[in-house]
Automatic annotation (TrEMBL):
The gene is upp. Belongs to the UPRTase family. Uracil binds at I196, G201, D202, A203. It comes from Actinotalea fermentans. Its EC number is 2.4.2.9. This is Uracil phosphoribosyltransferase. Binds 1 Mg(2+) ion per subunit. The magnesium is bound as Mg-PRPP. Catalyzes the conversion of uracil and 5-phospho-alpha-D-ribose 1-diphosphate (PRPP) to UMP and diphosphate.
Length: 211
C-alpha cells in the first residue's frame, strides 16, 4: 500500500477549520468539498491518459486525454457522499458507484446496507471517498468489494486517518502496490469509542445531522 499525507498549508488551514466544533454545518460541507478537490489533485496523479490530436487556432498538436475506460468514483455512504461534488469537479467524466456501510458502534464491524457498483470493474481505476479512516474496517471491506469485481487499482481519499486504521488497511492489503491512500492528516490515535483523536467528531453527523 502506498500512503500519501498531503503537506500543503491550504489543506492544513481548511482542515483546522473543519475540526472546530463550532464550525457551522454549511461551512463544514463547503470545506469538505474544497479539501477533496485539493486532495484529488494528488490522488489522480496516476490516472490513465492517452495522446490525442487537438487542433488549436494556430496548429495541430498532440494533446493528452483521459483514457477509456474512465475511472469510477465510489463514495462510501453517508459521509463519503459529502466528498462527491468536490471530486467530480476534477473528474467530470468519471462514473459513480455507491457503497453504503455503517459501522456498528458496539462491535465496530462495518455493515454493508447498500451496494450499487457495476458487477464488472475489470481494468477500472477506482477512487474511494470516505472522510474518516478510524479502525480501518470500512475501508478494508470497501477495497475488497472493488478487487472482487476486478478493479485495476484503488485509490482512497480520506480527510483524517488514525494510525490504527492505516495499520489495519496495510496489513489487509499486504504489499500490493495497486492500493493508495491519500489523506490530509494522520492524527494521534483512536479513543475508547474508536473515534479519531483529535479528529473532527462524526463526519456523517456533521455533514447531514441525523444520528
Ligand atoms: O474505520 P472505521 O472504524 O470503519 O470507521 C470509519 C467509518 O465511520 C464513518 O462512517 P459511519 O459508520 O459513522 O457511517 P455514516 O457515514 O453514515 O455516518 C466514516 O465515514 C467511515 O465510513
Ligand atoms: O472519528 C470518527 C471515527 C469514525 N467515524 C467518524 O465519523 N469519526
Ligand atoms: Mg457516522
Amino acid at each position: 500500500m502506498r500512503l500519501h499525507v498531503a503537506d500543503h498549508p491550504l489543506i492544513s488551514h481548511k482542515l483546522s477549520v473543519l475540526r472546530d466544533k463550532d464550525t457551522p454545518q454549511a461551512t463544514f460541507r463547503e470545506l469538505v468539498d474544497e479539501l477533496v478537490t485539493l486532495l484529488a489533485y494528488e490522488a489522480t496523479r496516476d490516472v490513465r491518459t492517452e495522446p490525442r490530436e487537438v487542433i488549436t487556432p494556430v496548429a495541430a498538436t498532440i494533446g493528452t486525454h483521459m483514457a477509456d475506460p474512465k475511472p469510477i468514483v465510489v463514495p462510501v455512504l453517508r459521509a463519503g457522499l459529502g466528498m462527491l461534488g468536490g471530486m467530480m469537479k476534477l473528474l467530470p467524466t468519471a462514473e459513480v458507484g455507491f457503497l453504503g456501510l455503517k459501522r456498528d458502534e458496539e462491535t465496530l464491524q462495518a455493515i454493508t446496507y447498500a451496494n450499487r457498483l457495476p458487477d464488472d470493474l475489470s481494468g477500472r481505476q477506482c477512487f474511494v471517498l470516505d472522510p474518516m479512516l478510524a479502525t480501518g474496517g470500512t475501508l478494508a471491506a470497501t477495497i475488497d468489494y472493488l478487487f472482487e469485481r476486478g478493479a485495476h487499482d484503488v485509490t482512497c481519499i480520506c480527510l483524517i486517518a488514525a494510525p490504527e486504521g492505516i495499520e489495519l488497511v496495510e496489513k489487509h492489503v499486504g504489499d500490493r502496490a495497486d492500493v493508495t491512500v491519500v489523506v490530509a492528516a494522520v492524527d494521534e490515535r483512536l479513543n475508547e469509542k474508536a473515534y479519531i483523536v483529535p479528529g473532527l467528531g462524526d463526519a456523517g453527523d456533521r455533514l447531514y445531522g441525523l444520528t
